[in-house]
Amino acid sequence: GASSFMIHNMLESLCLEDSFENAGVKLKRCSVDSELQQWVWKERMFLINVHTQRCLSAFHSDPIQTLDCDGQDDLQWQCMNHRLISLSHSLELGVHSGSLVLTNTGKNTRWKSLDQGDLCHEKLKKKILFSFVQTGSRKQRETDEFPAKEDNMTEEEREYLRWYYRTED
What we know:
The protein is an alpha+beta fold and 169 residues long. Helix content is 18%, strand content 30%. The longest helix is centred in the C-terminal third of the chain and has 17 residues, at 119-135.
């Protein structure tokens, strides 16, 4: 299974939390016990909330919501340099006056995975694992869209990857 992670706004120090009854995605104090704050990447472009099983959507921006994951364009996100960019609108997920917005200003649009740091790296881990399963070796990584920077890894990151691959066998 995929490891879930929390999506943390670097300026506000709050996490994305889905809600029931289409009440929208909110910024809340980060709580590792909240399943509504746990997310996974699917197919490297959809962000799925673990608890509601719905995808982060750019279809509505007032409020930002999750919708059923049916593959439509509004549900697709690109992750680049700590930013989440809607593929359908080319707008970034950001925060304005304490609320989630879609913006093109680049202000307050930096996100990270609370436990691992790089939100985009969460996608990389799955791609590496997929390559490993498919080819039987990790050499495939060199051709990946997000090349692994093993030289820049901390010992803690290396230890996590060792654990990650060991538990996925």
